[in-house]
Write a structure and sequence with these properties.
Largest sheet: 4 strands, mixed
Helix content: 55-70%
Number of strands: 8
Strand content: 5-15%
Order of helices and strands: HEHHEEEHHHHHEHHEEHHE
Low-confidence stretches: 44-52, 308-324
Oligomer: single chain
Mean pLDDT: 76
Length: about 325
């Protein structure tokens, strides 16, 4: 049942992401000429006196700037998180012995950090990192359960999936529903890893006690592009599942759904409006002819552009010039 839910969320997230990105590309291709020309001729009585080119261009730059800033902040945070793992050392003592028994000695590293951390981190060569702070509060049985849990993430490259999800979330900041979907996906993966760890050693008391110790100490935040054992917003759900077999029921917040729906509707409207834009360079002018109709209207106006510049009547709908 958990595996089915995981696959369903992954499919939903992928389909929605690809669909919105395709829609965004389509809208950008359709309206990009308006951002690149200082003069726009309207072939119908749609807009007469309002200059839309400059405001649209500034708005477009603002959106790109926001996305660029979020991606830049994402890269900086990823680099900051990676620094604390650069000083990792080869495991020794109880950690080394337990990792050896599980045949993952080459994939396990220890970091000197007083916070209780256990994460699967790394893009090309991911490894399991256990902090010295965590080793101080857990016993051998709990350590074994934790390593098996993280091994599941390592084998399935969940860190890459979470990194891709973070990139999508930052590329589409006006669709906050992705935040809910990614959170639920992360919880599903943690539930799967917990189930794998419990199945391996035939009891769940060690994993439950390890999670309870993390709650009593300092639960970790979600690292970018990594899967962590003690992420604070997953602990309660996982303990309820392990102890009471309470099924996890995902959901999305109303505000995130509403905001995402509004922006999706706006994109659909922009993509469906029959706006036709034709670029021309006649009479030393670099401009576009736009028409809220079919190509025939824009073509007719372009063919009679000479009459427009001479301010003489032509046999077409009124033409308005907008420039800045």
């Amino acid at each position: 049942m958990i595996m089915t839910k995981h696959r369903l969320f992954l499919i939903i997230l992928g389909v929605i992401s690809i669909g919105i990105i395709i829609l965004l590309v389509s809208v950008c291709q359709k309206y990009l000429p308006f951002f690149l020309h200082s003069t726009i001729y309207y072939c119908q009585n749609v807009i007469r006196t309002v200059s839309v080119s400059k405001p649209l261009f500034l708005g477009f730059l603002a959106v790109l700037g926001l996305i660029g800033f979020r991606l830049f902040a994402l890269v900086l945070q990823l680099q900051k998180e990676g620094k604390q793992f650069q000083q990792a050392i080869i495991p020794y003592g109880n950690l080394k012995e337990t990792a050896r028994k599980l045949a993952i000695i080459d994939q396990v590293r220890m970091i000197k950090n007083q916070k209780p951390l256990a994460v699967c981190f790394g893009i090309f060569r991911p490894k399991i990192y256990i902090s010295s702070g965590l080793l101080k509060i857990i016993n051998t049985g709990e350590l074994r359960a934790i390593l098996i849990h993280e091994k599941y993430h390592l084998d399935h490259r969940d860190n890459l999936t979470m990194l891709a999800a973070s990139v999508v979330q930052n590329l589409l900041p006006f669709f906050p529903i992705f935040k809910d979907l990614i959170k639920h996906y992360r919880i599903q993966r943690e539930l799967e890893a917990d189930t794998y760890a419990v199945t391996d050693h035939n009891e769940n008391k060690h994993l439950i006690s390890a999670l309870e110790k993390l709650i009593r100490n300092e639960p970790q935040y979600a690292f970018i592009g990594s899967s962590g054992l003690g992420v604070f917003d997953t602990l309660e759900t996982r303990i309820n599942y392990l102890v009471y077999k309470k099924e996890y029921r995902p959901g999305v917040t109303f505000i995130n759904t509403a905001v995402s729906g509004i922006f999706l509707s706006l994109l659909l409207i922009l993509s469906l409006v029959p706006v036709q834009a034709t670029e021309f360079h006649d009479f030393g002018n670099d401009a576009i002819m736009t028409c809220v109709s079919k190509n025939k209207c824009a073509s007719f106006c372009k063919d009679n552009i000479g009459d427009v510049f001479q301010m003489t009547p032509i046999k077409s709908p009124s033409i308005s010039e907008i420039s800045y």
